[in-house]
Specification:
Subcellular location: Cell membrane; Membrane
Domain Peptidase M13 N-terminal: 100-447
Number of strands: 6
Enzyme class: hydrolase
Low-confidence stretches: 1-39, 453-475
Strand order of the largest sheet: 1-2-6-3
Bound molecules: 2-acetamido-2-deoxy-beta-D-glucopyranose
Largest sheet: 4 strands, mixed
InterPro entries: MetalloPept_cat_dom_sf, Peptidase_M13, Peptidase_M13_dom_2, Peptidase_M13_N
Helix content: 55-70%
Order of helices and strands: HHHHHHHHHHHHEEHHHEHEEHEHHHHHH
Organism: Coregonus suidteri
Length: 475
Amino acid sequence: MPIYIIDRKFSETPGESLQPAAEGVLSMAETVPPKSAKKPRWTSLEIGLLTVVSLLFIVIVALIVLFATQRTDSDAVCTTADCTQSASRLIENMDANVDPCDNFYQYACGGWLKKNIIPETSSRYSTFDILRDELEVVLKDVLERTVEGEASALTKAKTLYRSCTNESQIEKRGGAPLLDMLPNVFEWPIATDNWETDYGNTWKLEDAIARLNEKYGTHVLVNFFIGTDDKDSNSHIIHFDQQTSLGLLSRDYYTCTGPYAEPCRAYEQFMIDVAKLIRTDRSLVVNETQIREEVTRVIELEKEIANATDTPEDRNNPVLLYNNMELGVLNANFSLEVDTKVFDWSYFTRKIMGTVGVTVPDTERVINYAPNYYRRLNPVLAKYTKRDLQNYMVWRFVMNMVVGLSRQYRDTRKAFRKALYGTTSEAAVWRQCAIYVNNNMDNRCGKTVRRGGLLWGEQRTDGRDDLCDPGGVHQ
Ligand SMILES: *[C@@H]1O[C@H](CO)[C@@H](O)[C@H](O)[C@H]1NC(C)=O
Ligand SMILES: *[C@@H]1O[C@H](CO)[C@@H](O)[C@H](O)[C@H]1NC(C)=O
Ligand SMILES: *[C@@H]1O[C@H](CO)[C@@H](O)[C@H](O)[C@H]1NC(C)=O
Ligand SMILES: *[C@@H]1O[C@H](CO)[C@@H](O)[C@H](O)[C@H]1NC(C)=O
């Protein structure tokens, strides 16, 4: 809008902008003759200066003419549907009854505040959230539509969505899907009996981290991933990084004091409740004292892991993060020890890459994004038993899985969510599931939605427009 106002000013009074400039130039020209009249002949300097002044005069006039005509050209007001809608939205979100000199915030945002309340399912509400909500509706439409002969990846996304929204089936299965998976990740000691004899004797930290990583996408303690090489965008390279996600939102929470006391307490209770529920489902003895003791140790461990991570400020400089070295050097220089067993980086890497049939020699170049984290982590790990470590790692897996289980399991995280986000209710099931599928199969969904021509008016690059062609969902 301000641009529009300025434009009008220029077009209404074009003479005004020309006049003063022209006068200035004239008076400048007038000062020249009296001076020169005193002398019978002009020196070459005077002639030169006069030429320069004349040239400048011509340039200034040309610029003024150019400027004036250009402003007139841009006088056109955008009246397309998009522009009108945007303008109307801006005006709606303002409160013109308030004097901007009294309260600028109210003037600029008063309309938004009057018309919107933060939904119970969310901890914030903004124009980006509105866009996200709209995207979820588009996703719902795409995921619920059946299409003949579509790509198998899309069928998988739809199957995931269907099973996620099938509430009766979810209720019927209770905690079974999770309980069936626990043995695959070497069990959750807190929720089983005889872990030491059944799993502990053959347990290896490398195996446990690798399994959670390659099979379930849970990255704990040692974050292994393959990404683009920061210094060579044509190649991919193995990265080792610190644990990027913690159970609570950031490392600050682990002080557990002041505003963080309640989230910490709710987090602890969340873990206790899930452990009790699983033990009950398995018909095992539930000894609350014992569960609480183990949970306390897990929280202590996570506090120390959080403390060992680099702060976001430490990670500002990408050049310092880029520690390119051979895999063998990791073994020699970054020792992690648990129960007197040394972490074997090569074995760990081969374990993960073996699942996709890739062999990795010790001479393979890798990037260590967090050398200081690994140095600080070693003394931390030394303080805990393998049971504690396994309890922690599988907890992080369990807490992510709970959301897909029956109501009884989902309810264990209610108080935790409230303490963390201030939300009191959950989003509609279809919405949660659209988000879930999008998070887990984001590339697939992105392509699908784009193919449908529905994503924020994005243009197809091949010039075809299959906005209304259901065949556009084909691979
Ligand atoms: C839920 O799953 C069950 C078992 O697979 C199936 O029989 C039922 O039709 C599904 N319900 C819906 C609404 O998809
Ligand atoms: C529960 O566990 C605690 C600590 O491990 C133990 O001292 C107590 O005897 C147990 N209680 C029962 C009823 O088994
Ligand atoms: C956090 O880590 C530093 C060393 O990195 C250590 O000196 C400090 O004691 C740790 N704090 C806690 C609470 O563990
Ligand atoms: C690894 O350790 C060796 C000797 O112990 C040292 O020379 C080398 O600089 C270290 N490399 C890194 C990347 O820390």
